[in-house]
Amino acid sequence: MVTNSARLEYQFHVFLLNYLLPALDGDAKTMNFLQEVVDIMLAYIVESFDRSTKVIDFHYPNELLQRNNWELSDEPETLDDILISCRATLKYAIKTAHPRYFNQLSTGLDMVGLAADWLTSTANTNMFTYEVAPVFVLLEYVTLKKMREIIGWQEGRGDGIFSPGGAISNMYAMLLARYKMFPEVKEKGMSSAPRLVAFTSEHSHFSIKKGAAALGIGTESVICIKADERGKMIPSDLERRIIEAKQKGYVPFFVSATAGTTVYGAFDPLMAIADICKKHDIWMHVDGAWGGSLLMSRKHRWKLNGVERANSMTWNPHKMMAVPLQCSALLVREEGLMQSCNQMQACYLFQQDKQYDLSYDTGDKALQCGRHVDIFKLWLMWRAKGTIGFEAQIDKCLELSEYLYNKIKDREGYEMVFDGKPQHTNVCFWYLPPGVRYLEDKVEKMKRLHKVAPVIKARMMEYGTTMVSYQPQGDKVNFFRMVISNPAATFEDIDFLIEEIERLGQDL
Amino acid sequence: MVTNSARLEYQFHVFLLNYLLPALDGDAKTMNFLQEVVDIMLAYIVESFDRSTKVIDFHYPNELLQRNNWELSDEPETLDDILISCRATLKYAIKTAHPRYFNQLSTGLDMVGLAADWLTSTANTNMFTYEVAPVFVLLEYVTLKKMREIIGWQEGRGDGIFSPGGAISNMYAMLLARYKMFPEVKEKGMSSAPRLVAFTSEHSHFSIKKGAAALGIGTESVICIKADERGKMIPSDLERRIIEAKQKGYVPFFVSATAGTTVYGAFDPLMAIADICKKHDIWMHVDGAWGGSLLMSRKHRWKLNGVERANSMTWNPHKMMAVPLQCSALLVREEGLMQSCNQMQACYLFQQDKQYDLSYDTGDKALQCGRHVDIFKLWLMWRAKGTIGFEAQIDKCLELSEYLYNKIKDREGYEMVFDGKPQHTNVCFWYLPPGVRYLEDKVEKMKRLHKVAPVIKARMMEYGTTMVSYQPQGDKVNFFRMVISNPAATFEDIDFLIEEIERLGQDL
């Protein structure tokens, strides 16, 4: 066996490890290598916050494919080549921490959150049992309880899980609502239930329909409720559609209200919706992926009044709380429901004769088997900031968006997509370049205006100076949707954005 | 506005940032803080590979809750407190890199993979569009193509996605199979389809049933096919059950064959299953979450012969290839199907008038909206090792398991759960302590034996010397399931495991 062993160890060294750990005497080489990678990252971090650097060094896909050798081959590369790849990857990455990166609901880079994510990678484990993730399982328990307290559920009771993103959290909620009403669907499938219908506003996130498609409910059974001009669900329309569905013999089982819509940042009137759900005995879910974090702010949490009456809530700390991606929680009011809905009692993973309290094994209430550790970054950031730190961060972003709104609402060349102060940090507006501004033919004007935002956006990316999102909505042509979740942004960055839009768009 | 701004900046500093970036002049403090965290991690890494340290410093949940202050409060903590929390978290973590940690299918810690995961956290972006993740989207494209080539699909054509774990990958496959046969289910729900039935072996992973429950198909519509004594699906039983289902008027739509079962490490006979699927026109999925990586080994890939005839395959590089958690791929033979199955065309995210080739925007074919970047660690490890490096690593683990098998198969006090050389690294065995070994009453013997593995396992954790999994299966009482996926393990570690089991179990 010795010869065999020696041969294997040789292969091991040559092919696998470049003499890094676990190679014998690999300590020093490993430390050097990891430190070099850390130095590359530290330089990138400092650069990311520097306004004189580009947000993006943009290249078209075919061009980027040719700018570096990205291919995989049979033969190993040297560690120097690996470091070159690390540098190239960061060179062409978007600097999502950049104070002028406004493109997504998730922006910014928190230093404590980042440190926590590095540590999570180093611990390299799975959330399914206390056995393999004792600390992380406890921290999830502590944090979910705290979040439920903030929602306003008595003594923080209830259940919940961190899931891979808001879409999956919303899908969980729909699954639980169905199970609550028709538990037999778990074994017998949808054919054992009557036709189920779900309700959500026309401004809600597409994941509600995606979930319905996956769960075998069907997108046609998701009834879109009218929203008012500010993007809020109209409760009277909800009730009308529920009654209509019942008259057709369908069974309303799920209402997903949105706290912070993707485009307008609108908050559905949760209290009125809760009344309707109670009256008709329907599961009330609140999709607060984007707006849920406003619960952390004493100044803004009134926008979610009524959330305490919901049966479940999606809340993504990776958005407005700037926790590194990804970190999404589903909170559920009823205890034990997730477990009975999802458990399959696989005895090879969830042994019932282990030495510790098995209620800490969370795996069987999940849809996933292995589950990534998403809790530590949120927990550590919470420790570093305290609740009041998150509050200050959120309040600041909202103040910046109000500043933007005040600045452009009467400015020449701008038109707001909806009237009034934004409720979240979403500020939706058109910029009308001089060449479009005075056109009298309205059809021609809209046609031209529709092309303005995409061109300005493409130019922003080519110059690399800033990034902001745009989209059409209903019959409204392309407009900018500015959002602020990056704690690095300042009033001066808002000023810059306005100037940059005008600079890049004035000739259109 | 200046006063306002000044007040905000003050809050910002005091509550949020502890003067870390993006605070003005935060560079030096940030570098120091991150370097301190790195130093804590580097020390942990070196310790993890040191056999003289414990795999785990085990404490019961209530005890662990009291060993540290894990609570979240309103007030911020100092950076020194944060560093203390980092140290405490690692102190009580499982050392999953430890050469004697055999507890899960995912073990080990690859230094290049770890560096890549740190870099991924630093880049902090999302996979949904090329716009926000240009490099990572391209690397996913390159890597999925390479994986499809290795499966044997012509020119690597097809589709795929990295998903949050094997359970979700399997659910994707089932969803695609349903969509392929009854696309109207997407809009109209399961009531528009006849009763669908899926087939998988009795030894398959519980995620197949979990997926069926979620998708509204129902667990009773998952028909469990008999496995032989080695845990392999019996093709004749599969065909019999398909015919039986058809006779009842059900529609067989999905067969999930397993390449590497969780407990026995069995490979279902894919060629025979492919023949049956072809004959009956059923989607063939291969759940290779655990065994798929053997495709990287010229010596072992024959065990998956026939996989090239599958319609889809789950393959988790985070298991046998030791990529950091998590990294799971679903590969699909047909191009375009994922997109049409899952797309909702949300124009606010997937604008159709962007300046670049939109085929690189992968978000609308996913069930998720935001999607974590899981590709970079696999890609960078592949560059560092080459295909032959992964091959050597896999071959070594299989050689170690054969060594274990040879060592215990005729050893006194051991009994193998199934005969013959293991096909994967799973070695399943009972250890019979002297007090149990010679019992004549068979019922009493089994009753006593059932309790042996849990007690030895609990002692392993209390001593912290090693960790290995156990479970019952069918009518078989608790047995050890040894698996080897940790490249740090050596022949000596296998010897140690045997000695440790005997040391800890001799008095039972």
Automatic annotation (TrEMBL), chains A, B:
GO BP term (any one): gamma-aminobutyrate shunt
Needed cofactors: pyridoxal 5'-phosphate
E.C. number: 4.1.1.15
Keyword terms, alphabetized: Cell membrane, Cell projection, Cytoplasm, Cytoplasmic vesicle, Decarboxylase, Golgi apparatus, Lipoprotein, Lyase, Membrane, Neurotransmitter biosynthesis, Palmitate, Phosphoprotein, Pyridoxal phosphate, Synapse
Enzyme class: lyase
CDD domains the record matches: DOPA_deC_like
Job description of the protein: Catalyzes the production of GABA.
Family, per entry: Belongs to the group II decarboxylase family.
Full protein name: Glutamate decarboxylase 2
